[in-house]
Amino acid sequence: MTSLFKLVFFICASLFLVSCKAQMEVSNGALNKQPFINDTTFVNLKEYSNDFVYDMKYATADNFLKSKVYDCAECYLRLKTVKAVIEANSAFIKLGYKIKFFDCYRPLDVQKKMWKIVSNPSYVADPIKGSIHNRGGAVDVTLVDLSGKELDMGTTFDFFGVEAGHNYINLPTEIIKNRILLKTIMLENGFNSFDSEWWHYNLKAALNDKLSNTKWSCD
After folding, report:
1. pLDDT value of position 37
2. What's the rounded Cα separation, in Å, for the pair 73 and 58?
3. Which residues contact 208 (CB under 8 A, 6 or more apart)?
């Protein structure tokens, strides 16, 4: 390796690390500057970090229900879930990736809409029992690179075949590595995985929170 090439390589690597550090400082700074509120309070993730990508499927008809059930595309979560997902995203950013959201907190009224469309507990949680989504502790996510391109996870979001499960291994090595990357860092930051859905993660600290029908404004 020539001296000039080494110098160029060192500069590029340094700039990448500085960029990652700056992004994380923006996220952590936004979190630290917020006034004190209880960890169980529902908040808009966008007010705490600009480092996420969103494709909120249920605010469109591009989902397995073939119906729009949210009035607008917002990602609300309990504050403790926001803190955990920001920490996870900081770890991904160091590796050159970001979290992309498909779904966040889901009010009980929305769960009832979904149940009315598809009344099958294999696909939609019965609103009488609810789900962790209705508690503000579940996230449906994937990863994108820093240009916004999704990593290949082998199936689309909300694909309900066996191929979407964490234990399904008849997949190319690259896809398995992508799923392991997502799962490893999410688990390291306080989440549990859901065996049959590679995209679904529950915050362990939110499993016993109450079901909620908290709504957000669509200004």
Report:
1. 84
2. 8
3. none
